[in-house]
Recover the amino acids of this structure.
């Protein structure tokens, strides 16, 4: 489910291949030119290993991510495409974009929310990512 339009200045939580320095990151998306990484954050969920990339799902694990401020809303099409979002048919989407609360390192709310790409398929036998923290070197290019 997409909770409204994305606007310039909106925050995102990246927890996998879109994290700064991640192996397997999409080279065709200019994250540095289109915004700025703001630092580490936490969020509640469950990170699963989907074979070279993670998926965040409903859960109560304290997961690790990076906050990213999107300055160029024109990048949202490329981000959604990379994450397999199908706004016309969410049932076909690999991920859905929704808002979630940003937490600090002590799991306290920061008072801010951010967009996050939530895995939209059943996890099947996927294993949980240790400590809810996807390693930068673990990624494999998807697109």
């Amino acid at each position: 489910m997409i909770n409204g339009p994305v606007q310039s200045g909106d925050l995102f939580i990246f927890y996998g291949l879109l994290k700064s320095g991640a192996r397997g990151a999409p080279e065709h998306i200019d994250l540095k030119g289109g915004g700025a990484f703001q630092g580490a954050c936490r969020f509640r969920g469950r990170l699963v290993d989907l074979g070279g990339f993670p998926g965040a799902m409903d859960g109560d694990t304290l997961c690790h991510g990076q906050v990213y401020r999107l300055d160029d809303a024109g990048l949202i099409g490329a981000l959604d495409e990379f994450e397999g979002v199908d706004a016309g048919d969410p049932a076909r989407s690999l991920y859905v974009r929704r808002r979630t609360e940003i937490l600090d390192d002590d799991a306290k709310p920061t008072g801010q929310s951010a967009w996050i790409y939530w895995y939209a398929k059943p996890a099947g036998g996927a294993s949980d990512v240790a400590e809810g923290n996807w390693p930068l070197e673990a990624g494999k290019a998807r697109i």
